[in-house]
Structures are given as C-alpha cells and as structure tokens.
Amino acid sequence: MSFLAIVSAKGSPGVSTFALAATLSVPSVAAATGGANAEGPRGPVLLAECDPAGGSLLAGYLSRYDLPTDRGVLPLASAALRGSAVQELPGLLIDLDNHKGERLALPGLTDPAQGASLAPAWAAVGEFLAALSRAGWTVIADCGRLASGFPPWPLLRQADAVLLGVRPTSLATISPAVPALAQLRRELPVADGTLALLPIGGGISARELSRHLMAPVAAEVAWDTRTAAALGGKGRGRRRGALMRTAARAVQATQALIVSDRAARLQLPALPSGVIA
Question: Where are the beta strands (DSSP E) in the chain?
C-alpha cells in the first residue's frame, strides 16, 4: 500500500511513539476515523526501526516479553545484501498482535555503534521495504533524528512519503525543522516522493506551520502522554487514546497526500497559447 518514513529534527520528541501508535492502529483506520467506507490496508502493517542511533521497541513496548535477540533490521540488511530477504523475513519479525500476522515489527539496532555497519546496506533495505509496499504492505519506517552520524538517506529515497516530525509549541521549537527541511530537500529527489510535516502536539496551527516552513502538513497528532507512556512500556496500552486515533488518521491522510502528489506529477504541462493539440 505505502512506504512511510518518519524522521525528526533536533528537539522534536514523539516520532518513535507515533510510529508505534500508527502501526498498532492502522488496521482499524475505518473505525478510528468514523468512516464506514474507509479502506484499511490490504496486507500486513510493518513497523521497521531504521534509526541508526538504535531502536526502542525491545527496551520499551516489548520489554515484558522474552524475545529472541537474532531478529531485526541488522540481520535483514545482511539478508537483503545476499538477496535472500524474502526467504528470511518471517524469521526476523515480531508479531505485535498475538500471532495474527497483521501488525509486525522489525526491531532496530541495540547498539548505536552498529549504525556505521548498516550504512552500506540502507539502499538494499530500502528497496526491499519498497517492494513490500508494492505487494500490499503498509510499511512505517522510524528513521530517527537526521542529526545522527549515519542518516539512512538511500532508504529515505525509496519511501513514498517522508514525514518530518515537529513539536509546534512555539517558533523556538519549530526552528530546528528549517535546516532539517533544507537537508531533506537537498538529499531527496523532489519528483519521486512526498515530503511533509507531522506536527505532534498543539500550538502553532497547521496553516501557520506550513506557511513558516513552506511545506505541507500531512496531519496533526495528539500529544497524549498517558498513551505514550504505555507504548513506552510503562503500563498497559490504551488502544482508544487520542494518540492512537490521530495516528491512524495521520497514516490515512498521508496515503491520500501521496495519491494526490502522484496525480499532480502525472499531469501534462499546459500547452502554450495558440498551439492546437
């Protein structure tokens, strides 16, 4: 269905929590948005922790489980380079939904020092995740802060949409997004994907945020500390919290934005006046 990559600038917390909330709530998009005719994903939803600085799932949301340590993005990267990722993928995933195979996770690095070793493999991982999305999966890649030493640019270039998480409480909190957006525009092909803002929490309106940063706002996500704490492993999950509802809506809105952007890129340029087609 789609391949969404989430990144953040300095001082923009909540991106990893949003990615997990979206993964857990996307299969019930129709119920979450109140639209009986809304379409959910055709295939599984995959959360891929692709942050070079390390993942948080195993130490947070999944910390109460005794899980194997040989699963995740690092062995997938090796398999992708060998050309055996399709065969090895089932053994590298963690089922987040009691063995239903609907919502899956690919845990991230456990040691930030491993980030450098992944640099040569990001292109292969990105190509594989993009292939999963073309096969009907919804892929949500948590790519962490752009300020890390080894941003996964080859993977980001494969995404249908790159969302930059921002905390829109004031001009001071959104100012780090200015250099981050400039870097994203330099590194990502303008014609190949959607680049949009993902405000997390209230403050500056979406219209003002878009005007200040000169980028579209995909959707607004609630600042829900109780649900965020539960998703971080501190208590039981709250599947009906504001964070879950708005995360589901954000994925649906981003998918609609991708479709709209693709349609706009496919339009032919207008003919000069006086030219007869």
Answer: 2-8, 45-49, 94-95, 103-106, 138-145, 161-166, 194-199
